[in-house]
Amino acid sequence: MDTPQRYETAALGLSGTRYTVEQTGTDKNFRPEYEARDVSGDTIFRCTYNMYEGNDTFPFIDTDGTELFTVEASGNWNIAGDYLLTDSQTGEELVVLDNDLSLFQDTWRIRDAEDGSLLAEINSRGTPFTVGRKLLPVGQWIGHKFEITDAEGDSVGTIKSDFAVFDEYEITINDSSSVPVDPIVAGTAVIDAIQGN
Asked: Does residue 3 fall inside a structural domain?
C-alpha cells in the first residue's frame, strides 16, 4: 500500500495531530460554511457546501480565496454514496469518501481514488446517539463522536463535538503517519454537512 502522505493535497500536506473544524454559519443562500484551524488557531481552509447546483460540491479555499481542492458527489443529491476529493493544484483525484446510509451508525471510508483500497475509516459512536441525532427535534445539536481507524482497523484517533447549535469538531490523530490527514480533516466538514442537511 502507498504511504498515507501520497494522499495529501499539494497546498496543505497536513502532518499535525490536532485540528478543529467548525460550522461557522451559513451564507446568504443558507448553505453551511465551514472553517478548519490548526492547533495554533490558524485557519487552514474554508469551504461552503454547495447543494443547489445539481450535485453536492465542496470547494475548499485558503484565506486568500485560492482553491486548494474540491470534494464532489459522484451523483445528484448523494446522501449515501461516493465523494471524490480532487487536488485543485495538480488536478489529481486523490481519495474517495464513501458512506453507507444507516439509521444506526454512520460509517465513512476513505479509499484510494484509483484502486479503491481502504486507507481509513470514520465511525460514529453507538446507536442511541446516532438515532437521537437523526430523529429527535433538537437531535442535530447533540454532541457527536467518531472513531478514526487505519487500514488495518486499529484506532488512531477521534473526532468529537459538544452540544451546540453549530457543530465544532475537535480532531485528534494519535498517529498521523498511518492515515491521510488532509482527507480526514476535509472529510469532517463533508460528513457534518451531508448528515446535517
From this structure: no
Indicate whether 103 belongs to any domain. yes
- Residue 7 covered by a domain: no
pLDDT tens digits for range 166-176: 789 999 999 88
pLDDT less than 50: residues of the chain: 1, 77-78, 127-139
Structural domain for 160, as ranges: 17-196
Give a three-class secondary structure readout of the chain: CCCHHHHCCCCCCCCCCEEEEEEEEECCCCCEEEEEEECCCCEEEEEECECCCCCCEEEEECCCCCEEEEEEECCCCCCCCEEEEEECCCCCEEEEEEEECCCCCCEEEEEECCCCCEEEEEEECCHHHHHHHHHCCCHHHCCCEEEEEECCCCEEEEEEECCCCCCEEEEEECCCCCCCHHHHHHHHHHHHHHHHC
How many domains does one find in the chain?
1
pTM, full prediction: 0.86
